[in-house]
Design goal:
heterodimer, A: alpha/beta, Metallo-beta-lactamase, Chain A, Rossmann fold, 4 domains, seven-stranded mixed β-sheet, six-stranded parallel β-sheet, 18 helices, 33% helix, B: alpha+beta, Leucine-rich Repeat Variant, 5 domains, six-stranded mixed β-sheet, 41 helices, 56% helix, globular, hydrolase (chain A), metal-binding (chain A), RNA endonuclease activity (chain A), nucleus (chain A)
């Protein structure tokens, strides 16, 4: 099973996947060899405790080390909001999260993990968030690559997704931005920095509502380096709690970040922020410029909303929304230009501060998806994680550019794709030795013809010599002979004709053993040729050619040779 | 590495031994020579196991073999080869054969037959490969011999079908290095051997082993390097290899495609899947562009680099590289660059305040969107955004090269370059600023671009800021607001980083003189003059005010109406600045003021010729009047030296030549003076005192000659001869003086011998130039050489004395371009009264910042010297990375010097200065028996002496005693 996410939009049972699709009835463990989690976002791992503890699954769960570290923090946070704040019952508990995490097996990048005798998985770097990975799943010679979410353009703290030319049978790729081609990230970054810088220079306070993980770190790095470069002094704050823990893991998993951070961490770990400090509620009233990162990202509750209310009245201040806002949130309202907000208790908040929007998204755009498809060279592509209309466009493009099949199944739909797997067959030693004795040593790169019997028994393929096969199966051997008559125009006697046939064959088939037997017949290896007079026409002789089916090749060659007739006798 | 060092140690060791032998008896050495092969023979016979034999061979390989004995050694090795069963020993022998055949002075054609012979009987693939390598060594040693090359190529072709990739690799390498055109083959008359090497190599492009494929492409490139014209058919084959599974193959293929595109830029190739045809160079460009988004970063770097040198590509394709069609939900979107441009042209400033600011506009036809770039589309957009900074730098470099050749492209790529100013890696930022400077002739910055550029002025890295100042020096700004913006930002920079003062002033100087008309309307505002009221006089020492004045005065130079706007104190300040900062403030034609400076004004072009003539004339006068009476000569020399020095000060472009000749004349003057001394006529006991003068003169001449040789860049060989000649004379003088002042003959022996060695050395080094030295001191000296060799020191001295007096004054030919090396220490400024306090025994780091001009190879020659008050001197070698190269002929040293001393009772000053280290031995032609690269490192890097070439700066320091 690839990923085990939840739906953010629902608060009832629809929030978690319906696992009965897999089992109908029976235990999940019997149906699943393993579960692979691509990264720690809740839409990819949110249902994990429910799945493993409440529904019940005891098999291994594979994820990368950073995901393993950060995932429980997010799950715990999510649980708190759902249970403690909203008071929901029938939800997984902290203990369940812990138990669930005990089933996790961490994998390294490019490490091939043997799940069982047949199944092996391998992780590739995917960008997107810390620890995001793409997984190659392989059974025998057939393989599937599942990308999870990925990003093909590097950013300030993560590199670009990369995969080798693994030529999988199927590539399952996300397609969030199937119909978007993005502008250069530099323009975006420059705009962002310029806006923040200007506001701070004029003594304003800048509020950046973010979600705790992922883009938040990206923006922190961006501001931190900018502050460093420009020698700015205004303080930057980050709201405490979840983020601090997460930042700690960012510091630890340096190998998962981009080139710049990896190269410079010996001097200084980029996540040990010099300019960014923990936020305290009291700081919001401090005079002078400052930048504050506060959660949550859509200004719908919590600290970010509190700060927003404090600062909204001053036109020097600024709020920058770095991501998408759901309809109905304060964030969405101010972005759509609303200047007067009704807060709870019939208060009206007048928004004088500047409102900016900026999209920092870490998904691959259409070009990026195409680039990845080009890199992996799959036999077919399957699009997921996107809108059907947009996928339609991308599907058409992929089919057109790469000439591969592309699928975009709806939820619950099954796709069957034909593959041509190579099947290993065991060869018996006796047969092999016999074959070797015949001549050349086997060459791995060249095909070779050999005779034998293929025995298929309980999904087990063996190639053995025919005698052995007969013995094993307890069958008696049947002789199969082909006989053929060749009419030859020759007025001479049978013996002479035989003699002529003998000398002719002797001269043509130099590397075969041709014999003239005393009874007047000719043998080539095991093929028997007899000459007889035609009953009606004495001028025509009938050659009787007979061979066993093992000598089919030589036999048919011989008949075709004889059919051409004998060369004129030198007499 | 360790093995390598060890080898070197052994080599040196053996060399020393040989030299000793040479001194004792040369015969002995000859006896040892043949024994070398004999010893090897014995060793190999003794060897009981292959491991033993291998050990002996390894030992043997550590020692060099003389050319004469190579043949014998080879025979013995071959003999053992035939007997040997162990492949590893055979392998070693084969590799030894290759090494031996490289020995200078040995002609390896005699080995070849044997080598080919054993090749045919060899079974082990590794040994085969090694033998082919040996053949390659032999073949490269004999490039003229066509027949041998032919044979080797035949051998290589025969083994191409080998199953081992190593053997095929080597064969292809051999073909690449030795294969020649068909023509020469047919000439030989061997009908069957008509082979097309290119076709044979081309067949291996589809080998099953990636290493062989790579080797085949490399061989093809090798053919190209050797001057063979590659066939155009290779292009298609190479294109197929671009989608190879292995990165080294792709990387090599990119190179090959580039080569072919340079060979046949104009030929036409069809586009697959359509009927159109395009030029080959355009097609290749498109293909290489595609590789910029390859999976392997090595390939990406390679591709990005090569793009820069494809200048023949048509502009249509070139501009595509910057093109990336944006879309959002299938609707066309404008890029931020386009939006910025539009906003600018509509006169609005970017608001960025609306959410839908970048809302997508028109719908796009789904069929027309091309997600996989067919050609060059967006190559640079990808390259500049790459994850690896190596790729980004390569892309910036390529962008620079292409922009230099195409002004329209330069205009287009500007936006992208400006974006690169915000890269996270400093190296990339620096590179893009430099690039921008290089193409600045072709571009004018828009205001919004200027804004971004200027934002970088706040960067905390000094290199970046200074590079940016340089860039601003040569940019074109389109509006007066732009100039104002630039000035404001520069002043901000000045307050934030006061150390940038000089650089900013210089930048404003150029900015002013480039845009006089744009500065003119800003003047009242900048000087804050008011039509009715007098305003307060600004502080003259304020660097910011000076910066503004520098801008205005330089603009006023070409804008005569500007001075009318100045207030009274501005004129006063002008006079002050003109004197104190004359390099920044030009002479102005001010109303009511005579243009006094015009007479001295150095910058007017017509003066150039006369002054050069003057220089020539005065030098000729000196050279022609050499037979004047001593008194007259001296006076003339003194006069000329003075003239030259003054000329050098006035004409900066002639300073090098003038100084150089003046120094030479001064040497001559010193020599004449020394020879005029009375001491030569006085009896021995009395001249003790006078001799000081003469020996001091000799010493000074030596110093001056070293300066002449090493402190000037552009000194050619003919000058070096003269300089060495002068030095020889000084040495002779020294010898004579010591001969007269010391008693006893013993010390003289050594000195005489040394001197004669010097003469011999001179003759060896400058044998080709000797004809030019007719009638000179050395000419005469060499005539008498046989006599000198045999005579006693006293006689030698006598002969030298007369010769020195008779010798004529050599004419010093002036080199084309000559510049004196100079250095200025910017930091430490040496003005601080606060001592640098530190605990004694520990170290304190002193930042040293200096500019060096016309220093060749500063990394190895420039040293920092620290002189402590107790006379202790310390020489510090700066790291090579401490030197930056901001422009041709200029270097910048930014380094840290560590000071330490025992405790002092009170603060005291240490002196810091820069030295130029030299080593006259580096001019020795390399001895033929030492192969290149094996010269012992000490010889190359040792310092013979140093010349101080900067003013020393005093730094106040105070080592405190450590507290207990």
């Amino acid at each position: 099973m690839l990923d085990c996410g939840m739906h953010m939009g629902f608060n009832d049972d629809r929030r978690f996947p319906d696992f009965s699709y897999i089992t109908r009835n029976g235990r999940l463990t019997d149906f699943l060899d393993c579960v692979i989690i691509s990264h720690f976002h809740l839409d990819h791992c949110g249902a994990l405790p429910y799945f493993s503890e409440m529904v019940g699954y005891d098999g291994p769960i594979y994820m990368t080390h950073p995901t393993q570290a950060i995932c429980p923090i997010l799950l715990e946070d999510y649980r708190k909001i759902a249970v403690d704040k909203k008071g929901e019952a029938n939800f997984f508990t902290s203990q369940m999260i812990k138990d669930c995490m005990k089933k996790v097996v961490a994998v390294h990048l490019h490490q091939t993990v043997q799940v069982d005798d047949e199944l092996e998985i391998k992780a590739y770097y995917a960008g997107h968030v810390l620890g995001a990975a793409m997984f190659q799943i392989k059974v025998g010679s057939e393989s599937v690559v599942y990308t999870g979410d990925y990003n093909m353009t590097p950013d300030r703290h993560l590199g670009a997704a990369w995969i080798d030319k693994c030529r999988p049978n199927l590539l399952i790729t996300e397609s969030t931005y199937a119909t978007t081609i993005r502008d250069s990230k530099r323009c975006r970054e420059r705009d962002f920095l310029k806006k923040v810088h200007e506001a701070v220079e004029h003594g304003g306070k800048v509020l950046i509502p973010v979600f705790a993980l992922g883009r938040a770190q990206e923006l922190c790095i961006l501001l931190e380096t900018f502050w460093e470069r420009m020698n700015l002094k205004a303080p930057i704050y980050f709201s405490t709690g979840l983020t601090e823990k997460a930042n700690h893991y960012y510091k630890l998993f340096i190998t998962w970040t981009n080139q710049k951070i990896r190269k410079t961490f010996v001097q200084r770990n980029m996540f040990e922020f010099k300019h960014i400090k923990a936020f305290d509620r009291a700081f919001a009233d401090n005079p002078g410029p400052m930048v504050v990162f506060a959660t949550p990202g859509m200004l719908h509750a919590g600290q970010s909303l509190q700060i927003f209310r404090k600062w909204a009245g001053n036109e020097k201040n600024m709020v920058i929304m770095p991501g998408y806002c759901v309809q109905g949130t304060v964030g969405h309202k101010i972005l759509s230009g609303q200047r007067k907000l009704e807060m709870e208790g019939r208060q009206v908040l007048e928004v004088k501060m500047q409102v900016e929007y900026m999209s920092f998204s870490a998904h691959a755009d259409a070009k990026g998806i195409m680039q990845l498809v080009g890199q992996a060279e799959p036999e077919s592509v399957l699009l997921v994680h996107g809108e059907a209309k947009k996928m339609e466009f991308l599907k058409q493009k992929i089919e057109q550019e790469f000439r591969v099949n592309c699928y975009m199944p709806a939820n619950g739909e099954t796709v069957t794709l034909p593959t041509s797997p190579s099947i290993p067959v065991g060869i018996s030693l006796g047969l092999l030795k016999r074959e070797m004795a015949q001549g050349l040593l086997p060459d791995a790169k060249k095909p070779r013809l050999l005779h034998g019997t293929l025995i298929m028994k309980d999904s087990n393929f063996r190639l053995v010599s025919s005698e052995q096969a007969l013995k094993e199966l307890g069958l008696a051997e049947h002789q199969l002979r082909f006989t053929c008559r060749v009419h030859l125009h020759d007025p001479r006697k049978e013996q002479e004709t035989a003699m002529r046939v003998y000398s002719h064959l002797k001269s043509v088939l130099k590397d075969h053993c041709v014999q003239h037997l005393p009874d007047g017949s000719v043998t080539v290896e095991s093929i028997l040729i007899q000459a007889a007079a035609h009953s009606e026409d004495p001028g025509t002789k009938v050659l009787l050619v007979s061979w066993t089916y093992q000598d089919e090749e030589l036999g048919s060659y011989l008949t075709s040779l004889l059919k051409k007739g004998l060369p004129q006798a030198p007499s | 590495m360790a093995a390598h060092l060890k080898k070197r140690v052994y080599e040196e060791f053996t060399k020393v031994v040989q030299q000793q032998q040479e001194e004792i008896a040369t015969k002995k050495l000859r006896l040892t020579k043949p024994s070398k092969s004999a010893a090897l023979h014995i060793d190999l016979c003794k060897a009981t196991s292959p491991a033993d034999a291998l050990q002996y061979l390894l030992q043997f390989a550590r020692k060099p073999v003389e050319a004469e004995s190579v043949e014998g050694v080879v025979r013995i090795l071959l003999e053992h080869y035939y007997k040997e069963n162990d492949p590893s020993v055979r392998l070693k022998i084969a590799s030894l054969l290759g090494l031996l055949s490289k020995t200078a002075g040995f002609s390896p054609d005699c080995i070849m037959d044997d080598a080919i012979n054993i090749l045919q009987n060899e079974k082990s693939h590794q040994v085969l490969a090694q033998l082919l390598d040996t053949l390659l060594a032999i073949g490269t040693k004999l490039p003229e011999n066509q027949a041998i090359q032919m044979r080797l190529v035949d051998v290589a072709c025969k083994h191409l079908t080998d199953t081992s990739h190593g053997v095929r690799n080597k064969c292809l390498q051999l073909l690449g290095n030795l294969g020649s055109l068909e023509k020469s083959v047919t000439k030989d008359g061997e009908g069957l051997a008509v082979r097309d090497v290119q076709k044979i190599i081309g067949d291996y492009f589809s080998d099953q082993d990636p290493r062989v494929r790579t080797a085949a492409i490399k061989a093809m490139l090798q053919l190209h390097e050797r001057g063979l014209k590659l066939h155009q058919t290779i292009y298609n084959q190479a294109c197929k290899l671009l989608s190879d599974d292995y990165e080294q193959v792709r990387s090599a293929a990119v190179q090959l495609i580039w080569v072919v595109s340079q060979l046949y830029p104009e030929s036409i190739v069809p586009i697959p899947s359509s009927n159109e045809e395009i030029r080959l160079v355009d097609d290749a460009f498109g293909k290489i562009c595609h590789m910029v988004s390859d999976g392997s970063w090595m390939v990406r770097v390679q591709a990005a680099k090569l793009l820069g040198s494809m200048e023949q590509v048509s502009s249509h394709f070139l501009e595509q590289t910057l093109d990336k069609k944006l879309m959002s939900d299938l609707r066309r979107k404008r890029t931020a660059h386009e939006r910025a441009k539009e906003l600018y042209s509509s006169g609005e400033f970017s608001s960025g305040r609306k959410w839908g600011d970048d809302a997508p506009k028109e719908e796009i036809d789904t069929g027309s969107v091309n997600l996989i770039e067919s050609g060059a589309c967006g190559a640079f957009v990808h390259g500049l955004e790459d994850e690896m900074y190596e790729v980004r730098i390569a892309a910036v470099e390529a962008l620079c090269m292409l922009a230099q050749s195409s002004p329209s492209f330069a205009e287009k790529c500007l936006d992208f370059l400006v974006d690169m100013f915000n890269d996270e890696i400093e190296e990339v930022r620096l590179q893009s600023i430099h690039t921008m400077r290089k193409i600045s002739n072709n571009i004018t910055l828009r205001e919004d671009q200027l804004d971004t550029v200027l934002a970088v002025l706040e960067d905390s890295s000094r290199d970046i800021r200074e590079a940016l100042h340089e860039l601003l020096c040569c940019t074109n700004v389109s509006t007066k607001e732009g100039i104002h913006l630039a000035l404001v930002e520069l002043l901000k920079n000045l307050t934030k980083y006061p150390t940038d003062r000089d650089s900013i002033w210089k930048c404003l100087k150029f900015l002013g003189s480039r845009h006089p008309t744009l500065v003119l309307p800003l003047v009242p505002e900048l000087l804050s003059t008011h039509p009715f009221f007098d305003t307060a006089e600004p502080d003259m020492d304020d660097p910011a005010y000076i910066a503004v004045l520098v801008l205005i005065f330089n603009a006023a130079k070409t804008c005569p109406t500007m001075p009318a706007l100045f207030s009274d104190h501005t004129f006063r300040h002008y006079a002050y600045l003109r004197d104190s900062l004359s390099h920044l403030v030009p002479a102005l034609r001010l109303p009511g003021r005579k243009l006094v400076s015009s007479a001295v004004s150095p910058s007017i072009a017509p003066h150039e010729d006369p002054s050069h003539q003057f220089l020539q004339q005065s030098l000729e006068r000196v050279y022609s009047l050499q037979h004047l009476d001593p008194q007259g000569t001296q006076e003339l020399l003194e006069l000329t030296i003075r003239d030259l020095q003054r000329l050098g000060e006035l004409q900066s472009e002639l300073a090098g030549v003038a100084d150089f000749s003046a120094t030479y004349l001064r040497c001559q003057l010193l020599l004449i003076k020394a020879l005029q001394e009375k001491l030569w006529n006085v009896a021995a006991p009395l001249y003790l005192k006078q001799s000081d003068l003469a020996s001091a003169a000799a010493k000074q001449i030596m110093e001056e000659t070293y300066k002449m040789e090493f402190m000037y860049s552009g000194v050619e060989n003919k000058q070096v001869v003269i300089i060495h000649h002068m030095r020889l004379q000084a040495k002779a003088l020294q010898l004579i003086v010591t001969a007269r002042t010391t008693r006893g003959v013993d010390p003289l022996f050594g000195m005489c011998e040394k001197f004669l060695q010097e003469v011999d050395f001179f003759q060896r080094c400058f044998i080709t130039d000797l004809p030019h030295l007719q009638d000179s001191f050395v000419d005469k000296l060499l005539d008498l050489m046989p006599r000198l060799m045999t005579s006693k020191p006293v006689e030698v001295v006598k002969i030298l004395q007369t010769m020195l007096r008779q010798s004529t004054f050599l004419h010093l030919p002036l080199p084309e371009q000559i510049h004196k090396a100079s250095a200025t220490i910017i930091e430490p400024a040496g003005e601080s009264d606060n001592p640098l306090r530190f605990t004694s025994g520990l170290v304190v780091a002193l930042d040293v910042d200096a500019t060096l001009e016309h220093v060749q190879d500063p990394q190895s020659t420039v040293k920092v010297q620290v002189l402590y008050p107790d006379g202790q001197a310390q020489m510090i070698h700066p790291k090579p990375a401490d030197f930056r190269n901001p422009g041709p002929g200029r270097h910048r040293l930014i380094t840290q010097v560590y000071l330490s001393h025992t405790a002092w009772t009170e603060p005291c000053q240490v002196e810091v200065r820069l030295l130029l280290a030299y080593n006259s031995n580096s001019r020795i032609p390399k001895s033929p028996w030492i192969e290149g690269g094996e010269v012992s490192p000490q010889l190359e890097t040792s310092i013979e002496g140093t010349i101080p070439f900067s003013k020393s700066v005093k730094v106040y320091i105070m080592p405190k005693p450590a507290r207990r």
